[in-house]
Amino acid sequence: MSEVYSASVTAPVNIATLKYWGKRDTKLNLPTNSSISVTLDQAHLRTLTTVSTGPQYLASKLYLNGHEETLNKPRLVAVLMTLKELRKEVEAKDPTLPKFSDWNLLIVSENNFPTAAGLASSAAGLAAFVTAIAKLYQLPQSFSEISKIARQGSGSACRSLFGGFVAWEMGELADGSDSKAVEVAPKSHWPDIKAAILVVSADKKDTSSTSGMQITVNTSDLFQYRIKEVVPKRFVDMKDAILKKDFNAFADMTIKDSNSFHAVCLDSTPPIFYMNDTSKSIIKLVNLINDQSIANGEGLIAAYTYDAGPNAVIYYEAKNEVKILSTLYKYFGELPGWEALDDALLAGVKSVEGPIIGEDAFAASDFDVSRLILTGIGEGPQDTDVSLIDEKGEPKFLTA
Ligand SMILES: Nc1ncnc2c1ncn2[C@@H]1O[C@H](COP(=O)(O)OP(=O)(O)OP(=O)(O)O)[C@@H](O)[C@H]1O
Ligand SMILES: C[C@@](O)(CCOP(=O)(O)OP(=O)(O)O)CC(=O)O
């Protein structure tokens, strides 16, 4: 019988509240600025990855969502090489260990949400990829150290190595050894953070993050102001707001940073547009929700943010859930996604009466939303017994 050694993990999506946009080194994936994100709950968005090795595998292979994908991409090659080198160090210290570093890998992965649709699939995907192999290889490195390897695969992936609130410290060194993810605060610090994702379009985007950010680096003047003046201060202030659980300050900076990121995209040549008209209508709706709450003396209660696509992510606190979701329900009540709420909460959301916020401000056609994902802050990568590879070492596809 052939030898099969395998390991499985799940890894989360993270959505930045202070955006990474720009590389100072495209080979090592080193950013032009530090960033901050919230890790989302894996109950709703996660990658599951199983990795196996054994002398019988004639080549390394990757299957994503049931289809073979090439491993022959420079960034994946770099990631695999680094992991193998670290495994070699482990084997050198204990010569009784099997020589995994000489063998090929079978990697089987599934995302439970649309891939490459601006829902940060590359972040969860690369985090799971690296974490599963590190587990198989029994690497002793800390998660921050492992995050540097994930960073080489996709920058934002390094932040998916932790749960809760996560910072990616840009670092200064040319070799990238100080450009890593660190935990700002665990989920338990502020577990009441919720996220509503309005999926505006699940299609593949026109301009990838990787190419879009370099167009901005090379052509935008506003970008220089963003990375030199805006982000360094915001990085300190946002961590402070998180540690103080100051939602008003956190929301204000999250909104401003999303606006700033999309402004530098627009200031690029040629300009890059990630938000569409529906995205803009959702911004207007969130502003109306906040205006009402400011009028009531409560400050900001909802924070929108947009990545490199038109989907909206709205962060809010559990104490304002009924208020915010009852407004969203009036506009988006017919869409799939509400079933994620427990019955009592959904009944509460449905029962709120009175005028709809922004009732006169929108036409039905303003919102071309296909689905909602109602989720919240979550934990980092998790070990799992669910395997996508059978005992013979063959892939098994759960959802294909
Ligand atoms: N589970 C996975 N395992 C390995 N690679 C993955 C996985 N999921 C996604 N990827 C890689 O990430 C790519 C998608 O990344 P892309 O940046 O285009 O989209 P996105 O991550 O959904 O959007 P964004 O990063 O802008 O929010 C996929 O084509 C694939 O190469
Ligand atoms: C807008 C963003 O989501 C950009 C993410 O870019 P990627 O991490 O996908 O880029 P690469 O490093 O080239 O893989 C902002 C963020 O997540 O911080």
Helical content band:
25-40%
Radius of gyration, in Å, reads 22 Å
By DSSP, the count of extended strands is 16
Order the strands across the largest sheet as they lie in space.
8-7-9-6-1-16
Q: Report the β-strand fraction as a percent range.
A: 15-25%
How many domains? The number is 2
Q: Which ligands does the model contain, each kind named once?
A: adenosine-5'-triphosphate, the ligand C[C@@](O)(CCOP(=O)(O)OP(=O)(O)O)CC(=O)O
Query: SS-based structural class?
Result: alpha+beta
Determine the number of helices (DSSP H or I, runs of at least 4 residues): 9
Instruction: Please mark out the parts with pLDDT under 50 across 5 or more consecutive residues, or reply none.
Output: none
Overall description:
This protein has helices at residues 74-93, 121-136, 143-153, 209-219, 221-244, 247-266, 277-295, 321-332, 343-351, and strands at 5-12, 14-18, 23-25, 30-31, 35-39, 46-53, 61-64, 67-69, 105-111, 165-169, 180-185, 193-199, 302-305, 312-317, 371-376, 382-383. The chain has 400 residues and is α+β, with helices and mostly antiparallel strands. The protein has two domains: 5-188, Ribosomal Protein S5, domain 2, CATH 3.30.230; 193-376, GHMP kinase, C-terminal domain (Alpha-Beta Plaits). The strands form four sheets. Strands 8-7-9-6-1-16 form a six-stranded mixed beta sheet. Strands 2-5-10-11 form a four-stranded antiparallel beta sheet. Strands 13-14-12-15 form a four-stranded antiparallel beta sheet. A hairpin with a 4-residue loop joins strand 3 (23-25) and strand 4 (30-31). The chain is globular and about 70 Å long. The model has no long low-confidence stretch (mean pLDDT 95). Bound molecules: adenosine-5'-triphosphate and ligand DP6. The site of ligand DP6 has 14 residues, from helix 4.
